[in-house]
Amino acid sequence: MDERYDEKNQGTWANDAQMPDILKDGNILAKETAKKEQAEVLGKWLWILFWLIIPSAIAGILSNENLVGKESGVYIFGTLLSMVVGILYGVILLPMRGVEEKYRIAGIFSILAAVLSMGLEVIQVESPLMVLVIGLPTLILGLIAKYYEFHSHAAVLREFDLEFSQKWLTLWKWYCVIIAGMIVSTLVVLISFLLAALLILAFTIGTAVIAIVQLVYLYKMAKLFRQYA
């Protein structure tokens, strides 16, 4: 029989049922304290992430060359803002690695994706081949970053709200669908420009919906952890 030794009370017990109540209470208190400490860290940084998505969305609009024109000052400002926000987003994910290690990977890949995206704009590559060479790794890095971010959110929520945790995993699947749809849309241009335009419009709307849902989820997460702490 696997007996456990209690140094404080100089006794042994065979299972948790035989553990003295005072020790059970101590274990529960220790776990609760740890959860509160984790919630405090998560609540702080997730709240910042929530507010960071707002300038990110604004930057996305301002850096859309179809809306403002690539030569305009608004486009340049939007592009710079997008890069800065992208790097900050990754930096803010890093402190949460103490709660969930996947946040560290998400942060690193977010920063790398933002830096590569910056390089693509600074170099101003015109060749489709070079755009593909630089753009494809940027896309892959971004996907990896989102994978680890969404799965990190799901992991830390598991002990607090399992249903909410599953929602992040579902959102990741829809995110993949949208990205795949955008890629397919660009290929459809070779067949039908009109169809490609319609698909791009549809998946662009889908991207906006995903961003809004992510914003709502981050707000709810931050609120949940801040209240728990």
Automatic annotation (TrEMBL):
<feature type="transmembrane region" description="Helical">
    <location>
        <begin position="45"/>
        <end position="62"/>
    </location>
</feature>
<feature type="transmembrane region" description="Helical">
    <location>
        <begin position="74"/>
        <end position="93"/>
    </location>
</feature>
<keyword id="KW-1133">Transmembrane helix</keyword>
<protein>
    <recommendedName>
        <fullName>Intracellular septation protein A</fullName>
    </recommendedName>
</protein>
<feature type="transmembrane region" description="Helical">
    <location>
        <begin position="129"/>
        <end position="148"/>
    </location>
</feature>
<feature type="transmembrane region" description="Helical">
    <location>
        <begin position="105"/>
        <end position="123"/>
    </location>
</feature>
<keyword id="KW-0812">Transmembrane</keyword>
<feature type="transmembrane region" description="Helical">
    <location>
        <begin position="197"/>
        <end position="219"/>
    </location>
</feature>
<feature type="transmembrane region" description="Helical">
    <location>
        <begin position="169"/>
        <end position="191"/>
    </location>
</feature>
<keyword id="KW-0472">Membrane</keyword>
